[in-house]
Amino acid sequence: MSRTSIELTTVAQPRAVAKSSIRRTSTPVNASIISLVEQDALSTPSLEPTIAITSKSRTAVIIASVTLITAISTLLNGLTTVALPTIAAELDIPDSLLLWPSSIQALTSGCTLLLSGSIADALGARFMYLTGCVLQAGFILGCGLARTTMQMILFRGLSGVALSLCLPSAVSIITSTFVGQRRDMAFASMGGGQPIGFSIGLALGGVLTDTIGWRWGFYLAALLDAVVFAIALWGLPRSIDDRIGVEGAASHSWSQKLERLRTEIDWVGATIASSSLAMLSYAFAAITGSTADIGRPSTIALLAVAIALIPIFIWWVGRQEKLGKPAIIPNSLWRNKIFTTICVAVFLTWGSFNALETILTFYFQKVQELSAIQTSIRFLPSPVSGAAFNVAMGLLVHRVSANYLVLGGCVLSVAAPLAMAFATPHSNYWESGFLGNVFNPTGADSLFTISNLLITSVFPAKTQALAGGVFNTISQIGKSVGLALVAVIASSVTASSRYADKTSPEALMQGCTATF
């Protein structure tokens, strides 16, 4: 087999023609040129309308906006993970719905990302991002005010829909405003916000749960979301939402945007894909909550229908391509080996990363029987490692072959489950849990910057938000599959253990060891 090498080379930024901190210019489709040795290059459009940001202060504002909105969502995931036993006791959540407050957000977000990305490309990434910020702040506040199980699950689900408006739009904002190394650092910062947010949420959830109450975590997150909205409203250039037409003029009227909404979105394809993803995510979430649900008729029916929709989707987008009409994810993209490989890598890496993080929480709380605060403290190395690795990716992505960066990150991440594979209920933290937390984020963080650069380079300039939706959808599916898989493995191994008490630390440890 021929060897394929991928190198990301920085494109020099265009010279400024004025002293303004914002300028519109035409640059190559991505800040990176993807050189493929012994393989065909990516088929991409030649020009991308870009608002080149040169001001350091404006750069900081934009990067802070897109980073914080992702950090807030993962912060709440971490907070919910630690505080879930207390939330369940206070809201009287039945066992059949116990995991829904923590899993429903990923479900609703994952099945609406593609559609949200398409709409953002039509109406404007800035508009959709600001809309998502406002809605998310309101729904997060609703979670803090919830007094019943259904209210909590409803608001967590709606916050996932609001998040789906922000994530693809954030990717489009980055590709529209930055070139070269600033784009790399923006993606790296956005990726770093996820592990940092989750770990801060774990720590904050443990402290608040044992002191003033878990509700304050949602109140503080809603307040922070409102602050992000204010920063974005002031700092994001309005020209982000302008589309450069064939004659070089920017189109920004609502009549033009609504026309694009009607004619440039593959509504049928988006509906088929979203429906399939919704049913798959629901089935995986149900299995994660109770492995006994895998044999229920409703779960089997959902999985069967979801899988049956996949060939229908493939046929539909193939038909759209042949007719020259919009296709949400053209079949021709999957013939690109680089695109397909990076999507598979994201799916597997995010599944492993999230599964191990969840099992580590279970290990600390259920096996070692630690308190929420003690568990939170043990996760502190994770955000430090994640942030450091993302910064390193942003700095190295144009100096070192992407092959080596991805390979190195993934090899390091393998050390995390290996360090935990020999753990016992009484293992020393520094010999197992510490190493697991340090190395777990490396694979996901090495892929985040590179995969976003590659995936956005494959899609045309006018569908960059959809490109962001594709990346986030794949990572969400990987997360759902990973969590469901480890739940089934841990449950079955624990049930077949030789210990009579299946809830004892020793019995639970066998299930954890199998997942590691």
From TrEMBL:
GO terms for molecular function: transmembrane transporter activity. Residues 59-516 form the Major facilitator superfamily (MFS) profile domain. Keywords: Membrane, Transmembrane, Transmembrane helix. PROSITE patterns: MFS (PS50850). GO terms for cellular component: membrane. InterPro entries: MFS, MFS_dom, MFS_trans_sf. SUPFAM superfamilies: MFS general substrate transporter. PANTHER family: MAJOR FACILITATOR SUPERFAMILY MULTIDRUG TRANSPORTER MFSC, TRANSPORTER, PUTATIVE-RELATED. This is Major facilitator superfamily (MFS) profile domain-containing protein.
